[in-house]
Amino acid sequence: MADVMTDDMIEYVSILAKLELTEQEIEDAKKDMERMLAYIDKLNELDTTGVSPMSHAFSTSNVFREDIVTNENGQEAALANAPRQKNKSYVVPKTIQS
């Protein structure tokens, strides 16, 4: 990792993040980035032998049901509770005036 953040690096990151930084903000960002990189270097010192890589702290599983295609026509069931129907369709009040 880089020990020292340069103005070019901060400028590049600010362009990617679409930020316009003042001189003071650039200096603050350099210090913050150096602290973050130092922390990452510290984490790299950890012994992870025998620890398998994972994407989640807890095991996850798919809880969705299988997609089962049926050719069932539910028209009669859909119309069963319709207050009014005509020609196997719902009858609704007219909403557009001509």
Shape: elongated
How would a crystallographer describe the biggest sheet?
2 strands, antiparallel
Question: Which stretches are low in confidence, meaning pLDDT under 50 for 5 or more residues running?
Answer: none
Strand order of the largest sheet: 1-2
Share of helical residues:
25-40%
Describe this structure in words.
This protein has helices at 7-16, 23-44, 75-79, and strands spanning 85-86, 89-90. The mean pLDDT is 86. The chain is mainly alpha-helical. It contains three helices and two strands; from the N terminus they run αααββ. A two-stranded antiparallel ribbon has the order 1-2. The N and C termini lie far apart (72 Å). Helices cover 38% and strands 4% of the residues.
Blueprint (SSEs and pairs):
Blueprint: H1 7-16, H2 23-44, H3 75-79, E1 85-86, E2 89-90
Antiparallel strand pairs: 1-2
